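Supplementary notes for students who missed Thursday's class. We covered one full example, reproduced here. Read the sequence, then the structure, then the short commentary at the end.
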Amino acid sequence: MSASSELGNFLRNRRGDLRPEDVGLLRHTGRRRVPGLRREELAMLAGVSVTHYTRLEQGRATTASDSVLDAIARALRLTDDETAHLRDLARPASPRRTPAAPRAEYVSASARQLLSAMTAVPALVLDRRNDILAWNRLGHALLAGHLDARGPDDPSARPNLTQLLFLDENFRTLYADWHEEARLAVASLRLVAGRHPDDRRLAELVGQLAMRSPDFASRWAGHPVRTCTSGVKHFRHPVVGAMELAFENLHIPGDSGQRMIAYSAEPGSPSDAALRLLDSATAPGERVPEGLVENEFRGA
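Structure (token representation):
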């Protein structure tokens, strides 16, 4: 889908989310043809002409000033992430005359060395499409112990975090609140797609997910936008049970869009004990029966 079409989709979606009474307008009696604000109402709130706003929403406006975009963002009550997304869609980067063929990405030697040195912390490196480029032993054990640990080494068969979330039942059950995880994943991917409208591999990923997962398709159609750089995730690990882990996204310098995600537990907490047991369970030659930690914590 073109950037102009995506812009129209985004504006219509956000306009439809607002009711006249939400923005201080009197709701007239009688039937309204649209559930949210009309174009004329939004244009009035933003202080722009109806014609200019309509051309923008229909993808027929070639330029939009900072002041116009800011006014529309305020009228739609957009978040900072949504406002940045609006700018990305309204001013897409000039496409290459001849699009470059997608190239396989690799983790730098220094980043891989750092990843390996983080022996007590689950960590992995992702590209902007959420392809897993590398993980350390504990990162693999935490997120995808059912997959081949060597998977990220093969560019043609690398696991993708978003695909796993929507298409892999083992990965889906890993999260205590899958719906929240799915919401954040789609919102983050939307933000990236707006910044890189000419990324063919990203477009193919979105298309495949939309065809194979009704959950993904319905969430994508809602056009959520949000970035998530840190927080807490609640896991239900098949080997060591429930864990509450903080995470941080650490962007790797450069323009590759690669980032490292690292997870940690509060020292001395049950999650810390579970993480340490997962570490010992995945050490070479070691094996801990499924559910051992849950049984221990329950006094079994």
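Commentary. The first strand starts at residue 123 and ends at 126. The beta strands are 123-126, 132-135, 230-237, 241-251, 259-264. If anything here is unclear, bring it to office hours.
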